[in-house]
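Dissemination and training. As part of the outreach component of the grant, students in the summer workshop were shown how a complex can be specified as a set of sequence lines and then modelled as a single object. The example used during the hands-on session is reproduced here so that future cohorts can follow it. Participants entered these lines:
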Amino acid sequence: MRLFNRFLVVPFLLASAVGLAHHSNVMFDKDKEISLKGTVKEFVFANPHVSILLSVPDEKGVVTDWSFEAASTQGMVHAGWRKSTLKPGDSVTIVGHALRDGRPGAQLVRAILSDGTVLQGSAGGNY
Amino acid sequence: MSLKDTLCFDTWLLWGRAGSAVLVLTIAVPQLGAQARQNLPSNKSAPAEQPGALSKENLAQPRPKPPFDLTGNWMFSAALNRDNGVFNFLPLPKLKPAAKALYEAGQKAEASGKAFHNDAGACWPAGMPMMMTRVWPNQTIQLPTMILMIQMLKNEMRWIYLDGRPHADPEIKPPSYAGDSIGHWESDTLVVETTNFESKHHWVQTGIPVSDQFKLVERIKLKDDGKTMEDTFIMTDPVNWEGEWVSTKRWYRYDNSDIEEAYCLPDLNDRLPATGPGSNIR
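and obtained this result:
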């Protein structure tokens, strides 16, 4: 499986799909999006935030685990997500707002599943 | 009577006396204890029981019909709150020097991409008033005697008593993050006064703390044919700012939803990029 590792930084086109969480979200760079393709290590379908741990290899094959934070289960379900949407080993591309300090973490904006389905991070800009 | 018989008689006599003494003590000691408890000073006795907000007796009391019913799910909306700071309470009051320094440190931290004393993000209760400005449904149940609000996020609750009781005596009710809320109706407005706040890790918004002198008055109205709840927060805290801090917030009715469990769990929280180590300045 070819996993490409380079961050694809695309212009910021969409408003953040994730509203104010149970915490401040100033640590995310909302002015740009990164796109990462990798293998799901963990998909935690839980409140207050769904989270995904994604193993992303770089050009040299060095794997970094990226932590993505998403909306609540309700917000995700309204956007089409289900508990069974992802499982460990699945290949997925995730677009998000990365942490501004360079650590491997991001706020999930949308995901592109292996069959091409695009799922937004939440519906209607709410929780 | 032989010597042996005399000894035996005395032994029985002794056992009989000892048994009587035990019997007397068994009966008398609890009575003495009860007597001692009755003699305790009255200011240390249990408070007199009052009908709770859900007691049938209290609910059945005759009361004027309230001007509106807040029962429903209410969603905080950024779109409805653009003019008042959205998640913050604007306009700001004149902050006292220490609070101003803290607020400015918070602004500087956020500008650098770090949360500042993000206690609500670290599983401490957001409390009042912050719990009202989270983008999650707020489930509200209005009864004649009480309004219960449950913010889905972290399932934080507040109770607004409408049955005419006074504020609870702080001698018997400890400070809390939701505070002690007493409401009454004034024409088309629900007026709620809240006192007795816990100040530990409790913030109005980033960099502006809640002290134990914080007091909140809310003037709540139902607008737009019952589709919008509007709450004007009038906040005083002589430790942290001068005069009244006034800001109005709005929610839209979101009844096609139910809330669910959403506790802040330390193990999950530590792994989220926004709340894990490194994202928060203290």
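The longest helix of chain A spans residues 73-78. Students were then asked to discuss how this feature might be tested experimentally.
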